[in-house]
Amino acid sequence: xxxxxxxxxxxxxxxxxxxxxxxxxxxxxxxxxxxxxxxxxxxxxxxxxxxxxxxxxxxxxxxxxxxxxxxxxxxxxxxxxxxxxxxxxxxxxxxxxxxxxxxxxxxxxxxxxxxxxxxxxxxxxxxxxxxxxxxxxxxxxxxxxxxxxxxxxxxxxxxxxxxxxxxxxxxxxxxxxxxxxxxxxxxxxxxxxxxxxxxxxxxxxxxxxxxxxxxxxxxxxxxxxxxxxxxxxxxxxxxxxxxxxxxxxxxxxxxxxxxxxxxxxxxxxxxxxxxxxxxxxxxxx
Length: 285
Ligand SMILES: [Zn+2]
Description:
- The protein is α/β, with parallel strands linked by helices.
- The chain folds into two domains: 1-41 and 88-128 and 206-285, Rossmann fold; 52-85 and 132-199, SIR2/SIRT2 'Small Domain' (2-Layer Sandwich), CATH 3.30.1600.
- Helices cover 38% and strands 15% of the residues.
- It contains ten helices and nine strands.
- It has a six-stranded parallel beta sheet, sandwiched between helices. It has a three-stranded antiparallel beta sheet with strand order 5-4-6.
- Helix 4 (90-100) packs parallel to helix 10 (272-283).
- Zinc ion (ZN) is lined by residues 136, 138-139, 141, 187, 189-190, 193.
- One of its GO terms (cellular component) is cytoplasm.
- The active site is at 128 (proton acceptor).
- GO terms for molecular function: histone deacetylase activity, NAD-dependent; NAD+ binding; zinc ion binding.
- This is NAD-dependent protein deacetylase.
């Protein structure tokens, strides 16, 4: 059976190959920002792989530059409204449906938006952490981001500039003079430490035990299915390299070229919002 999709040369055969791979089960999904763009969360990189206007916060700036950190939190405070309002899309729901059908061995996401979980997926490994919690750089205490937001709103009753656009890390673009008027709060556990969203910034290392867990998932998988990632950062690309080395088949579904294309056994260059629902429908009980 051929999946019903708009006719793109070469796509139908690739979709059949993808469906065959998924039918074998034990699929390990590795998802990236491209899966959440339909939910209104922009990708850092467009289809061409070119960096967009926004320069992402780096770990070095965040930890060493109090002013940079302050401005990050001011932007994040504004962006949080929109990030929290984002809803899972058909792609997220299709992944959850594949999991419900017993076809997935695991689900790793590079996204920090929590939309897989909101879409019904379970046991999601958040490779780069999640925006729904914070960690104290002083004492290591983890706390709920929603609770922090309540404290920030109390401390900033009049800080609410309107923005139309947020970045993938959940922050917004604002002029420096506006950012400097923001009041940040500290860790409640130790009373002093600066807070960081529990996400892995550019220039930061993913915790070793998390990486090892992902490698073990790759080793046990029947196939690796990459969704919506250009695999530009080694953080995710290394799992494709490991899979290829082990002979675990790799499928990549995303629009535009990826760094992993030479390693892919199946390559579908089509929108996830078309491919994933059609794929899930094929396996619906
Ligand atoms: Zn603390």
